[in-house]
Amino acid sequence: MPDGRTIERRRHRRHPLATSVTFHHGPSHRQFPARCVDVSAGGVKLHVPAATPVRPGQPIRLRVDGVYRPEFASLANQELPATIVRVDRIAMVRTGHLAVGVRFDEA
Fold this sequence. Notes:
- By secondary structure, the protein is mostly beta strands.
- The protein has one domain: Beta Barrel (Thrombin, subunit H), CATH 2.40.10.
- The protein is 6% helix and 49% strand.
- Strands 1-2-3-6-5-4 form a 6-stranded antiparallel beta barrel.
């Protein structure tokens, strides 16, 4: 019987980071706003508007506006290739936006 605990499968520790992000969505060739929630060496968690057409496996290019954590300062003000790996539509019910997991791609 499950005990309600979640097993952590991420390779990199996440750090809170609240900052604005824009991303170019490959399939639609459009720009969308997002809000960064947390960051790790492997990717970010974003909150995006509910109508944003995101799906796992889609390529995007992120631009992070400002990074106030020294260990992630290199992410600021550059375009980062990435892939959407998770879209949590259930979060929309609680928060009004989609929670999107994004993995940084090799440059």
